[in-house]
Amino acid sequence: MKEFDLNDIVETKKTHPCGSNKWEVIRVGADIKIRCIGCDRIVMIPRSKFEKSIKKVIKATE
Questions:
Q1: What's 18-62 look like in SS3?
Q2: pTM for the whole thing?
Q3: I want to staple 38 with a disulfide (CB 3.0 to 4.6 A). Which of 18, 55, 59, 62 is the partner?
């Protein structure tokens, strides 16, 4: 299981249609809510799908 927290910036394997693959985590729970850095679109996905789609955590908040 990959470690991520609120306000972390993560990089996904696939790019968003706007061209960015960097997202900010804005809600953590059974579902994860993320905001695209490129176009500010907000997406809510199940934790299991989110963990599979993450490539790495770019900026971890402390």
A1: CCCCEEEEEECCCEEEEEECCCCCEEEEEHHHHHHHEEEEEECCC
A2: 0.86
A3: 18
Distance CA 46, CA 38 (A): 22
Q: pLDDT tens for residues 1-57?
A: 578 889 999 999 999 999 999 999 999 999 999 999 999 999 999 999 999 999 999
Residue 40 in 3-state DSSP?
coil
Query: Residue 52 is encoded by which pair of tokens?
Result: 């599979």
Burial of 26 (0-12, 13-18, 19+ CB in 10 A): middle
Q: Residue written as tokens 């059974």?
A: 30
- Rounded to whole angstroms, the Cα distance separating 11 from 26 reads 14
Give the DSSP H or E segment for 16: none
